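pinging the channel bc i need a second pair of eyes. not urgent but kinda urgent?? the chain im working w is below, pasted from the shared doc
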Amino acid sequence: MLAALDNLRLAMGTFLGNPLRTLLTLLGIIIGVTTVIAMMALIEGLRIKVNRDLSFLGANTFSVSKWPSGFGRFNWRMYAKRQNFTLEDARAILEVCPSVAQVSGSDSEGGQRISTATLETRPGVSVTGATAEYVETSGVTVAAGRFFGSMDQEDGRAVAVLGMDVVDTLFPGANPVGQQVRIKGRPFTVVGVLQRRGSFLGMMSMDNEVIVPLRAYGGLYGTKSSLELAVQATSPELLRKAQDEVSFLLRRRRDVAPLAPNDFEVSTNESMTATFNNLSQVITIASFGVCLLSLVVGGIGILNIMLVSVTERTREIGVRKALGARKSRILGQFATEAVLMALLGGALGVGLGYGLAFLARWMLGFNTVVPPWAVALSLGMSSGVGLLFGIYPAARAARLDPVEAMRSD
Protein backbone atom coordinates (compact mmCIF):
# COMPACT_ATOMS: atom_id res chain seq x y z
CA MET A 1 0.00 0.00 0.00
CA LEU A 2 2.79 2.41 0.93
CA ALA A 3 4.64 1.50 -2.27
CA ALA A 4 1.56 2.29 -4.36
CA LEU A 5 1.07 5.65 -2.66
CA ASP A 6 4.74 6.43 -3.16
CA ASN A 7 4.45 5.57 -6.86
CA LEU A 8 1.44 7.89 -7.18
CA ARG A 9 3.34 10.69 -5.45
CA LEU A 10 6.32 10.29 -7.77
CA ALA A 11 4.08 10.19 -10.85
CA MET A 12 2.24 13.37 -9.84
CA GLY A 13 5.56 15.08 -9.20
CA THR A 14 6.67 14.18 -12.73
CA PHE A 15 3.45 15.55 -14.25
CA LEU A 16 3.62 18.80 -12.31
CA GLY A 17 7.27 19.20 -13.26
CA ASN A 18 6.47 18.91 -17.00
CA PRO A 19 2.81 20.02 -17.42
CA LEU A 20 3.04 21.14 -21.06
CA ARG A 21 4.82 17.99 -22.17
CA THR A 22 2.28 15.85 -20.34
CA LEU A 23 -0.66 17.70 -21.92
CA LEU A 24 0.73 17.43 -25.45
CA THR A 25 1.40 13.74 -24.91
CA LEU A 26 -2.23 13.17 -23.91
CA LEU A 27 -3.89 15.00 -26.83
CA GLY A 28 -4.71 11.79 -28.70
CA ILE A 29 -6.37 10.22 -25.66
CA ILE A 30 -8.22 13.44 -24.83
CA ILE A 31 -9.60 13.75 -28.38
CA GLY A 32 -10.70 10.11 -28.50
CA VAL A 33 -12.48 10.13 -25.15
CA THR A 34 -14.09 13.52 -25.87
CA THR A 35 -15.47 12.13 -29.15
CA VAL A 36 -16.99 9.10 -27.47
CA ILE A 37 -18.56 11.02 -24.58
CA ALA A 38 -20.01 13.75 -26.82
CA MET A 39 -21.38 11.31 -29.41
CA MET A 40 -22.88 8.96 -26.81
CA ALA A 41 -24.53 11.92 -25.07
CA LEU A 42 -25.98 13.08 -28.38
CA ILE A 43 -27.21 9.62 -29.35
CA GLU A 44 -28.73 8.94 -25.94
CA GLY A 45 -30.46 12.32 -25.95
CA LEU A 46 -31.79 11.66 -29.45
CA ARG A 47 -33.03 8.22 -28.41
CA ILE A 48 -34.99 9.66 -25.50
CA LYS A 49 -36.41 12.43 -27.67
CA VAL A 50 -37.31 10.02 -30.49
CA ASN A 51 -39.24 7.84 -28.05
CA ARG A 52 -41.11 10.89 -26.77
CA ASP A 53 -41.73 12.52 -30.15
CA LEU A 54 -42.97 9.30 -31.73
CA SER A 55 -45.64 9.02 -29.06
CA PHE A 56 -48.10 10.67 -31.46
CA LEU A 57 -48.86 7.05 -32.34
CA GLY A 58 -50.57 5.65 -29.27
CA ALA A 59 -49.68 2.43 -27.51
CA ASN A 60 -52.36 0.59 -29.50
CA THR A 61 -52.05 2.50 -32.80
CA PHE A 62 -50.11 1.85 -36.00
CA SER A 63 -49.95 3.52 -39.40
CA VAL A 64 -50.29 2.09 -42.88
CA SER A 65 -48.76 3.96 -45.78
CA LYS A 66 -47.76 3.63 -49.40
CA TRP A 67 -44.42 5.23 -48.55
CA PRO A 68 -41.66 4.00 -46.20
CA SER A 69 -40.99 5.76 -42.93
CA GLY A 70 -37.82 6.16 -40.93
CA PHE A 71 -34.20 6.83 -41.85
CA GLY A 72 -32.20 5.72 -44.87
CA ARG A 73 -32.11 5.82 -48.63
CA PHE A 74 -35.09 4.44 -50.53
CA ASN A 75 -35.96 3.63 -54.13
CA TRP A 76 -38.74 6.20 -54.39
CA ARG A 77 -39.57 5.26 -58.00
CA MET A 78 -40.40 1.74 -56.88
CA TYR A 79 -42.66 3.01 -54.09
CA ALA A 80 -44.38 5.46 -56.45
CA LYS A 81 -45.67 2.51 -58.52
CA ARG A 82 -47.67 1.19 -55.58
CA GLN A 83 -51.42 1.66 -55.41
CA ASN A 84 -52.73 4.62 -53.46
CA PHE A 85 -54.68 4.20 -50.24
CA THR A 86 -58.19 5.65 -50.23
CA LEU A 87 -61.07 6.12 -47.81
CA GLU A 88 -62.54 2.88 -49.17
CA ASP A 89 -59.54 1.05 -47.71
CA ALA A 90 -60.15 2.72 -44.34
CA ARG A 91 -63.83 1.74 -44.37
CA ALA A 92 -63.00 -1.86 -45.33
CA ILE A 93 -60.48 -2.16 -42.48
CA LEU A 94 -63.02 -0.91 -39.94
CA GLU A 95 -65.76 -3.22 -41.27
CA VAL A 96 -63.75 -6.43 -41.74
CA CYS A 97 -61.08 -6.44 -39.00
CA PRO A 98 -62.58 -7.31 -35.58
CA SER A 99 -59.47 -6.20 -33.63
CA VAL A 100 -59.63 -2.66 -35.07
CA ALA A 101 -61.47 0.03 -33.10
CA GLN A 102 -60.90 3.09 -35.30
CA VAL A 103 -59.30 4.13 -38.59
CA SER A 104 -58.47 7.59 -39.86
CA GLY A 105 -57.17 8.79 -43.21
CA SER A 106 -55.01 11.83 -43.78
CA ASP A 107 -52.89 13.65 -46.34
CA SER A 108 -50.72 16.73 -45.99
CA GLU A 109 -49.08 19.49 -47.98
CA GLY A 110 -46.09 21.35 -46.57
CA GLY A 111 -44.65 24.78 -47.28
CA GLN A 112 -47.97 26.63 -47.21
CA ARG A 113 -48.85 30.21 -46.27
CA ILE A 114 -51.83 30.86 -44.01
CA SER A 115 -53.20 34.37 -43.74
CA THR A 116 -55.83 36.62 -42.20
CA ALA A 117 -56.95 40.03 -43.41
CA THR A 118 -53.86 41.65 -41.89
CA LEU A 119 -51.27 38.95 -41.10
CA GLU A 120 -49.60 36.08 -42.91
CA THR A 121 -47.37 33.19 -41.87
CA ARG A 122 -44.12 32.23 -43.52
CA PRO A 123 -44.36 29.55 -46.24
CA GLY A 124 -43.65 26.66 -43.89
CA VAL A 125 -47.04 25.61 -42.56
CA SER A 126 -48.15 22.02 -43.05
CA VAL A 127 -51.80 21.74 -44.08
CA THR A 128 -53.27 18.35 -43.19
CA GLY A 129 -56.51 17.00 -44.54
CA ALA A 130 -57.99 14.35 -42.26
CA THR A 131 -61.10 12.47 -41.35
CA ALA A 132 -62.89 13.18 -38.08
CA GLU A 133 -61.26 10.13 -36.44
CA TYR A 134 -57.82 11.72 -36.78
CA VAL A 135 -58.05 13.33 -33.34
CA GLU A 136 -58.33 9.85 -31.76
CA THR A 137 -55.59 8.10 -33.74
CA SER A 138 -52.88 10.76 -34.12
CA GLY A 139 -52.28 11.77 -30.51
CA VAL A 140 -53.26 15.43 -30.98
CA THR A 141 -55.23 17.16 -28.23
CA VAL A 142 -57.63 20.06 -28.66
CA ALA A 143 -56.78 22.85 -26.22
CA ALA A 144 -59.61 25.23 -27.17
CA GLY A 145 -62.76 24.91 -29.25
CA ARG A 146 -63.38 21.55 -30.90
CA PHE A 147 -62.16 19.21 -33.57
CA PHE A 148 -64.30 18.91 -36.68
CA GLY A 149 -66.83 16.07 -36.78
CA SER A 150 -68.05 13.54 -39.31
CA MET A 151 -70.67 15.94 -40.70
CA ASP A 152 -67.97 18.55 -41.32
CA GLN A 153 -66.05 15.89 -43.22
CA GLU A 154 -69.01 14.60 -45.21
CA ASP A 155 -70.15 18.08 -46.21
CA GLY A 156 -66.60 19.31 -46.90
CA ARG A 157 -67.13 22.32 -44.65
CA ALA A 158 -64.45 25.00 -44.66
CA VAL A 159 -63.43 24.66 -41.03
CA ALA A 160 -59.91 24.45 -39.60
CA VAL A 161 -58.05 23.50 -36.44
CA LEU A 162 -54.85 25.46 -35.87
CA GLY A 163 -51.51 24.54 -34.31
CA MET A 164 -50.06 26.93 -31.74
CA ASP A 165 -47.32 28.29 -34.04
CA VAL A 166 -49.98 29.47 -36.48
CA VAL A 167 -52.04 30.92 -33.64
CA ASP A 168 -49.03 32.82 -32.29
CA THR A 169 -48.38 34.35 -35.72
CA LEU A 170 -51.92 35.16 -36.87
CA PHE A 171 -53.73 35.80 -33.57
CA PRO A 172 -51.18 37.09 -31.05
CA GLY A 173 -52.89 37.50 -27.69
CA ALA A 174 -56.34 36.79 -29.15
CA ASN A 175 -58.75 33.84 -29.24
CA PRO A 176 -58.77 32.48 -32.81
CA VAL A 177 -61.88 30.29 -32.39
CA GLY A 178 -64.62 31.69 -34.61
CA GLN A 179 -62.16 33.78 -36.64
CA GLN A 180 -61.30 33.21 -40.28
CA VAL A 181 -58.06 32.23 -41.98
CA ARG A 182 -57.32 31.87 -45.67
CA ILE A 183 -55.69 28.81 -47.21
CA LYS A 184 -54.77 29.22 -50.88
CA GLY A 185 -57.11 32.19 -50.92
CA ARG A 186 -60.11 30.25 -49.60
CA PRO A 187 -61.64 31.29 -46.25
CA PHE A 188 -61.83 28.74 -43.42
CA THR A 189 -63.48 29.21 -40.05
CA VAL A 190 -61.33 28.31 -37.06
CA VAL A 191 -63.19 25.84 -34.83
CA GLY A 192 -60.35 24.66 -32.59
CA VAL A 193 -56.77 25.08 -31.40
CA LEU A 194 -54.38 22.20 -30.76
CA GLN A 195 -52.33 21.80 -27.60
CA ARG A 196 -48.70 22.75 -28.06
CA ARG A 197 -46.48 19.73 -28.85
CA GLY A 198 -43.03 21.24 -29.44
CA SER A 199 -40.53 20.17 -32.06
CA PHE A 200 -39.71 16.79 -33.56
CA LEU A 201 -36.06 15.84 -32.85
CA GLY A 202 -35.34 19.48 -32.09
CA MET A 203 -35.66 20.39 -35.78
CA MET A 204 -39.21 20.50 -37.12
CA SER A 205 -42.03 22.13 -35.17
CA MET A 206 -45.13 19.96 -34.75
CA ASP A 207 -47.20 23.07 -33.98
CA ASN A 208 -46.79 24.72 -37.38
CA GLU A 209 -49.86 22.93 -38.70
CA VAL A 210 -53.43 23.45 -39.84
CA ILE A 211 -55.88 20.54 -40.00
CA VAL A 212 -58.98 20.67 -42.21
CA PRO A 213 -61.58 18.08 -43.23
CA LEU A 214 -60.23 15.72 -45.87
CA ARG A 215 -62.93 16.60 -48.41
CA ALA A 216 -62.20 20.31 -48.04
CA TYR A 217 -58.51 19.50 -48.37
CA GLY A 218 -59.24 17.70 -51.65
CA GLY A 219 -60.84 20.87 -52.97
CA LEU A 220 -57.59 22.74 -52.29
CA TYR A 221 -54.92 20.23 -53.29
CA GLY A 222 -56.70 17.50 -55.24
CA THR A 223 -57.45 13.87 -54.40
CA LYS A 224 -54.78 12.01 -56.36
CA SER A 225 -52.37 11.49 -53.47
CA SER A 226 -52.27 8.35 -51.36
CA LEU A 227 -53.72 8.64 -47.86
CA GLU A 228 -51.90 7.60 -44.73
CA LEU A 229 -54.10 5.39 -42.59
CA ALA A 230 -53.82 5.41 -38.80
CA VAL A 231 -55.32 2.27 -37.30
CA GLN A 232 -56.25 1.94 -33.63
CA ALA A 233 -56.56 -1.54 -32.13
CA THR A 234 -59.27 -2.28 -29.60
CA SER A 235 -56.54 -2.73 -26.93
CA PRO A 236 -52.74 -2.71 -26.70
CA GLU A 237 -52.78 -6.50 -26.24
CA LEU A 238 -54.48 -6.92 -29.64
CA LEU A 239 -52.10 -4.60 -31.52
CA ARG A 240 -50.18 -7.44 -33.21
CA LYS A 241 -53.39 -9.24 -34.11
CA ALA A 242 -54.83 -6.06 -35.59
CA GLN A 243 -51.70 -5.59 -37.70
CA ASP A 244 -52.01 -9.14 -39.03
CA GLU A 245 -55.71 -8.67 -39.84
CA VAL A 246 -55.09 -5.38 -41.62
CA SER A 247 -52.11 -6.74 -43.56
CA PHE A 248 -54.10 -9.81 -44.68
CA LEU A 249 -57.03 -7.65 -45.80
CA LEU A 250 -54.89 -5.12 -47.68
CA ARG A 251 -52.89 -7.83 -49.45
CA ARG A 252 -56.16 -9.30 -50.67
CA ARG A 253 -57.59 -5.93 -51.73
CA ARG A 254 -54.36 -5.01 -53.55
CA ASP A 255 -53.95 -8.44 -55.21
CA VAL A 256 -50.54 -9.14 -53.70
CA ALA A 257 -49.26 -12.63 -54.63
CA PRO A 258 -49.04 -15.11 -51.71
CA LEU A 259 -45.23 -15.20 -51.59
CA ALA A 260 -44.67 -11.57 -52.61
CA PRO A 261 -43.73 -8.93 -50.00
CA ASN A 262 -46.26 -6.32 -48.90
CA ASP A 263 -46.67 -3.37 -51.26
CA PHE A 264 -47.39 -1.10 -48.29
CA GLU A 265 -45.63 -0.15 -45.05
CA VAL A 266 -46.87 -0.82 -41.51
CA SER A 267 -45.22 1.33 -38.84
CA THR A 268 -45.51 1.45 -35.06
CA ASN A 269 -43.67 3.37 -32.36
CA GLU A 270 -41.51 0.30 -31.82
CA SER A 271 -40.62 -0.18 -35.49
CA MET A 272 -39.65 3.45 -36.00
CA THR A 273 -37.66 3.45 -32.77
CA ALA A 274 -35.91 0.26 -33.87
CA THR A 275 -34.94 1.93 -37.15
CA PHE A 276 -33.37 4.81 -35.23
CA ASN A 277 -31.61 2.40 -32.87
CA ASN A 278 -30.04 0.61 -35.85
CA LEU A 279 -28.75 3.93 -37.13
CA SER A 280 -27.45 4.90 -33.70
CA GLN A 281 -25.53 1.61 -33.46
CA VAL A 282 -23.68 2.45 -36.67
CA ILE A 283 -22.81 5.89 -35.28
CA THR A 284 -21.69 4.31 -32.00
CA ILE A 285 -19.36 1.88 -33.76
CA ALA A 286 -17.92 4.71 -35.86
CA SER A 287 -17.38 6.81 -32.73
CA PHE A 288 -15.52 4.00 -31.00
CA GLY A 289 -13.44 3.53 -34.16
CA VAL A 290 -12.35 7.18 -33.95
CA CYS A 291 -11.74 6.75 -30.22
CA LEU A 292 -9.62 3.63 -30.73
CA LEU A 293 -7.52 5.34 -33.39
CA SER A 294 -6.99 8.36 -31.15
CA LEU A 295 -6.12 6.13 -28.19
CA VAL A 296 -3.51 4.30 -30.26
CA VAL A 297 -1.99 7.65 -31.26
CA GLY A 298 -2.08 8.72 -27.61
CA GLY A 299 -0.56 5.41 -26.55
CA ILE A 300 2.34 5.88 -28.96
CA GLY A 301 2.83 9.33 -27.45
CA ILE A 302 2.92 7.81 -23.95
CA LEU A 303 5.38 5.14 -25.11
CA ASN A 304 7.64 7.78 -26.59
CA ILE A 305 7.55 10.13 -23.60
CA MET A 306 8.07 7.28 -21.13
CA LEU A 307 11.18 6.14 -23.04
CA VAL A 308 12.44 9.72 -22.90
CA SER A 309 11.64 9.81 -19.17
CA VAL A 310 13.58 6.58 -18.55
CA THR A 311 16.56 8.01 -20.40
CA GLU A 312 16.40 11.31 -18.49
CA ARG A 313 16.10 9.57 -15.13
CA THR A 314 18.66 6.82 -15.64
CA ARG A 315 20.88 8.09 -12.81
CA GLU A 316 17.85 8.34 -10.48
CA ILE A 317 16.94 4.75 -11.27
CA GLY A 318 20.51 3.64 -10.59
CA VAL A 319 20.56 5.38 -7.20
CA ARG A 320 17.24 3.82 -6.20
CA LYS A 321 18.38 0.33 -7.19
CA ALA A 322 21.70 0.83 -5.37
CA LEU A 323 19.72 1.73 -2.24
CA GLY A 324 17.81 -1.53 -2.45
CA ALA A 325 14.83 -0.86 -4.74
CA ARG A 326 13.75 -4.08 -6.44
CA LYS A 327 12.96 -4.49 -10.12
CA SER A 328 9.24 -4.84 -9.26
CA ARG A 329 9.33 -1.47 -7.48
CA ILE A 330 10.94 0.29 -10.46
CA LEU A 331 8.53 -1.49 -12.81
CA GLY A 332 5.57 -0.43 -10.68
CA GLN A 333 6.77 3.17 -10.54
CA PHE A 334 6.95 3.67 -14.29
CA ALA A 335 3.86 1.55 -15.05
CA THR A 336 1.88 3.61 -12.51
CA GLU A 337 3.14 6.79 -14.16
CA ALA A 338 2.01 5.60 -17.60
CA VAL A 339 -1.43 4.46 -16.40
CA LEU A 340 -1.99 7.60 -14.36
CA MET A 341 -0.99 9.74 -17.33
CA ALA A 342 -3.48 7.97 -19.60
CA LEU A 343 -6.18 8.10 -16.91
CA LEU A 344 -5.60 11.83 -16.57
CA GLY A 345 -6.09 12.22 -20.31
CA GLY A 346 -9.27 10.16 -20.11
CA ALA A 347 -10.60 12.35 -17.28
CA LEU A 348 -9.87 15.51 -19.26
CA GLY A 349 -11.62 13.96 -22.26
CA VAL A 350 -14.67 13.11 -20.14
CA GLY A 351 -14.80 16.71 -18.89
CA LEU A 352 -14.56 18.12 -22.41
CA GLY A 353 -17.17 15.61 -23.60
CA TYR A 354 -19.59 16.80 -20.92
CA GLY A 355 -18.91 20.37 -22.01
CA LEU A 356 -19.70 19.56 -25.65
CA ALA A 357 -22.83 17.70 -24.55
CA PHE A 358 -24.00 20.77 -22.63
CA LEU A 359 -23.24 22.97 -25.67
CA ALA A 360 -25.24 20.63 -27.92
CA ARG A 361 -28.14 20.74 -25.46
CA TRP A 362 -28.15 24.52 -25.63
CA MET A 363 -27.82 24.67 -29.43
CA LEU A 364 -30.17 21.83 -30.44
CA GLY A 365 -32.83 22.41 -27.81
CA PHE A 366 -33.08 18.88 -26.39
CA ASN A 367 -31.47 17.15 -23.45
CA THR A 368 -28.21 15.33 -24.10
CA VAL A 369 -27.55 12.53 -21.64
CA VAL A 370 -24.11 11.01 -21.01
CA PRO A 371 -24.63 7.30 -20.21
CA PRO A 372 -22.51 6.12 -17.24
CA TRP A 373 -21.27 3.11 -19.20
CA ALA A 374 -19.67 5.43 -21.77
CA VAL A 375 -17.71 7.21 -19.01
CA ALA A 376 -16.60 3.93 -17.41
CA LEU A 377 -15.64 2.41 -20.77
CA SER A 378 -13.70 5.50 -21.85
CA LEU A 379 -11.72 5.65 -18.61
CA GLY A 380 -11.12 1.90 -18.72
CA MET A 381 -9.90 2.02 -22.32
CA SER A 382 -7.60 4.96 -21.66
CA SER A 383 -6.12 3.26 -18.57
CA GLY A 384 -5.64 0.06 -20.55
CA VAL A 385 -3.84 1.95 -23.29
CA GLY A 386 -1.55 3.57 -20.71
CA LEU A 387 -0.72 0.19 -19.19
CA LEU A 388 -0.20 -1.45 -22.59
CA PHE A 389 2.13 1.22 -23.93
CA GLY A 390 3.81 1.85 -20.59
CA ILE A 391 4.92 -1.72 -19.90
CA TYR A 392 7.92 -1.69 -22.25
CA PRO A 393 9.48 1.56 -20.90
CA ALA A 394 8.80 0.39 -17.33
CA ALA A 395 10.43 -3.00 -18.00
CA ARG A 396 13.38 -1.26 -19.64
CA ALA A 397 13.84 0.91 -16.54
CA ALA A 398 13.60 -2.13 -14.25
CA ARG A 399 16.31 -3.98 -16.21
CA LEU A 400 18.90 -1.17 -15.93
CA ASP A 401 22.13 -2.16 -14.23
CA PRO A 402 22.56 0.09 -11.17
CA VAL A 403 26.31 0.57 -11.65
CA GLU A 404 25.96 1.52 -15.33
CA ALA A 405 22.95 3.69 -14.49
CA MET A 406 24.84 5.66 -11.85
CA ARG A 407 27.63 6.35 -14.32
CA SER A 408 25.13 8.04 -16.65
CA ASP A 409 25.35 11.81 -16.89
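so The chain has a mean pLDDT of 79. and The chain has two domains: 2-52+274-407, 58-267. — does that match what u expected or am i reading it wrong
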